[in-house]
Amino acid sequence: MASVSESAIHLVKLFIRDDDATDATTCDSGNEYDGRDNLRVLALFMILISSAIGSFLPILSSKYSFIRLPDWVWFIAKFFGSGVIIATGFIHLLEPASDALSDSCLTGPITEYPWAFGICLMSLFALFFSELVAHHYVEKAAQGSSEEVHTHSHFGNFGKVKDDEESSVFEEKPDPLVNDGSISQPKEETGRSIPGHNHYSHASEHQDPEVINTPVEKQALEQYMNQILSVFVLEFGILFHSVFIGLSLAVAGEEFNTLFIVLVFHQMFEGLGLGTRIAECPWDHSRRYTPWLLSLGFTLTTPIAVGIGIGVRHTYAPGSATALMTNGIFDSISAGILIYTGLVELMAHEFIYSTQFKGNFKLMFLAFFIMCWGAGLMALLGKWA
Q1: Region entry Disordered: which residue ranges (predicted)?
Q2: What is the pLDDT along the chain (385 residues), one digit of tens a residue?
Q3: 151 domain residue, yes or no
Q4: Distance between CA atoms of 321 and 100, rounded to whole angstroms?
Q5: Domain range holding 335?
Q6: Looking at the domain assignment, is residue 168 inside a domain?
Q7: Nearest alpha carbon to residue 234 among 342, 84, 157
Q8: Residue 118 lies in a domain
Q9: Rounded to an integer, what distance in angstroms lies between the CA atom of residue 127 and that of residue 240?
Q10: 3-state class of 180 per DSSP?
């Protein structure tokens, strides 16, 4: 009986506190709040404005001609935003998650393994598996009861693909589509970086009366649904992160001023990355409010978190064991989402599977250079936030 009791006690110690952890630093039970409520309220509204500018401007520009951005601005915003999202996953999520889950005040199994990286890895594989399942059902819904057809078509300003047994031949074909509810309208023979017109080599073919109810239309629908899925996944990953940075800002002490300024730019750049991806998706008429709601969700999340932080500023302890574990776990999950989305959806699909750079290495190099600048600038902001 005594041996059983000893084993139970040892098991509890294993999961709660290591045997030699008696000298471990206790977790902080307070925060560095310094009473500057006015600045925190100002920060709430400034972050609200910067988030709104970043996330809504691409949608407004693609929707209304009187504020339509030039083609080169769209090009820069799109690839700069891709770099921002990738750097956010590595620098603003994975690194803080590692710091939180390896804090010296935490004891037990959490200290015996680099859980931030493990959770990030599990999140990445879980997301990939979820997309595999989702794509299966999307394909099934798009194809209906018809047999699977291996016909690959690319339509729009960048050409049309005709597959035969030996090769694929690209030939230019102007896009005759009329804007019937999608975010943007293609322009013939301009090479413009149309939102949603080249991502995954997506076609607007399903709107052409000549291909309605054909395998080509079903494939286009499948690609369209996959693009929508990737946008929702990206939004989900970013929103997790936005909650915790808002709470941290609300209870910050001496570093508040620096953190405040950095987060204003952080939210604008991150919103720009998300907003361009939302705007480039050719939302159909039944989902015409979805892009606005997605941008609104990003715009409000951090300010609401700041407001909650102000409300609990006397009791919220960002250095407590619970807060460290919560922040670390959710930041690790978000890191896996953004890293997967950034590397697969934004880099691989944009540079390898899209037709927009076919035969134009200089343009591809320019896009890559801009993406590096977005990632570099966002990584630099990680020095302060």
Answers
A1: 169-207
A2: 445 445 434 433 443 344 444 344 567 777 777 667 788 889 899 999 999 999 999 999 888 877 787 888 888 988 999 999 999 999 999 999 999 998 888 888 888 899 999 999 999 999 899 888 877 777 777 666 444 444 444 434 434 443 444 444 334 444 433 344 443 444 433 444 444 455 444 444 344 445 455 555 566 666 777 778 888 888 888 888 888 888 888 888 778 888 888 899 999 999 998 998 898 888 888 888 999 999 999 999 999 999 998 888 777 888 888 888 988 999 999 999 999 989 988 888 888 877 788 888 899 999 999 999 999 999 998 888 7
A3: no
A4: 9
A5: 38-143+178-381
A6: no
A7: 342
A8: yes
A9: 15
A10: coil
8-state DSSP, 105: T
Which residue has tokens 């915003």? 77
| Residue 321 CB neighbours (<10 A) | 18
DSSP string, 239-286: HHHHHHHHHHHHT--TTHHHHHHHHHHHHHHHHHHHHHHHHHS---GG
Q: How far is CA 199 from the centre of its chain?
A: 16
Q: Cα separations (Å) of 359 from 329, 356, 363? A: 44, 9, 9
The domain total for the chain is 1
In whole angstroms, give the CA distance from residue 202 to residue 199: 6
Q: Does a structural domain hold residue 127?
A: yes
Cα–Cα distances (Å) from 92 to 65, 87, 173, 369, 379, in that order, read 35, 7, 43, 21, 8
